[in-house]
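Listing S7. Sequence submitted for prediction.
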Amino acid sequence: MNILFNDFKKEYNAHKKGVDAAVKKVLESGYYILGTEVDQFEKKFAEYLGVKHVVGVGNGLEALQIALMVLGIGKGDEVITTSVSAVASALAIEAIGATPVFVDIDAYYHTDPKEIERKITDKTKAIIPVHLYGQAADMEKICALAKKHTLSLIEDCAQAHGAEYNNKKVGSFGVAGCFSFYPTKNLGCYGDGGAISTNDSELATTMKMIRNYGQQNRYEHPISGINSRLDEIQAAILSVKLETLDKENEKRKAIANLYREKLQGIKQITFPLERKNSLHAYHLFVIETAERDALQAYLKEKGILTLIHYPIPIHAQKSFKKYNAVSLPKTEVVVKKILSLPCSPYITRAEIAYTCRHIRAFFDTQSKRKSV
């Protein structure tokens, strides 16, 4: 077999009829930027999330950047976040001149609330928890901390479309929720795209201005902005795919359960924990093993592609050299052991069985070698 981590051809074929019709409609309209498709998707996604407003933007990084800009956060300010994430989570903070403050993780790979409180200073203006791998961070404690210290809470929801905490969708807890629609996401488009959710009508209005050069009316720019617009074609595609998001998340959950069932009893593997009162969207199914690199190489030989999210934490990146000395003991141990197994809703039971057979075979062989 040849098992891709993400099979975009299968994904497109599953949505082909609706997507083709949606794209054709936009092309025939002759209107490509900030038109009715963006407006309709924003309303649909806001309803889905249970928030008042959604603002479509160019990508997930700029969603975070605009959320920080609209709150007036900038040079001299500190923003607490995690180092186990895509680098965009921290790049957005640096883009507006603020300083990212990295804290260690809890057992769910999320920003540890205890560590957050230790890092709060007079310069701290916001907390950006990342709902990593498709599961909500500990929002009860993080929301309480934000309230206690009068800090803005911005959720990074790039990996958690449809995930819930206490029966509320992620993206509905903070002053803003930031989403990426990169093609690999649970709700992905066919290019770059992003969105910001909020219940604050005034902030939503300002966000819409910032995404479009700070423009209020044509050629009238009362504030400074950037170019970060979700285009009509991608918005139309997202409206189609939003209709099946929950069903596809259910498939991801079933795949995760199948992995647990078929890999049960392998002592060298640690399965991901599920937080209480949380609905995991399983953007990724991440296991831990001390023999991660050897296992990944073995699976590749068998035609099974896996990924590591993420092999180098943000604070250890060369581009973040001034943070390289930051000590995050749990983070630094975990990134050497994590491995993401294929978890697309388009993977078959036969492909999962094949993957699990080879994972089991790998560890059986390792055990035999050690016993000789």
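Caption to Listing S7: primary sequence and predicted structure tokens for the chain studied. The mean pLDDT is 97. The radius of gyration is 21 Å.
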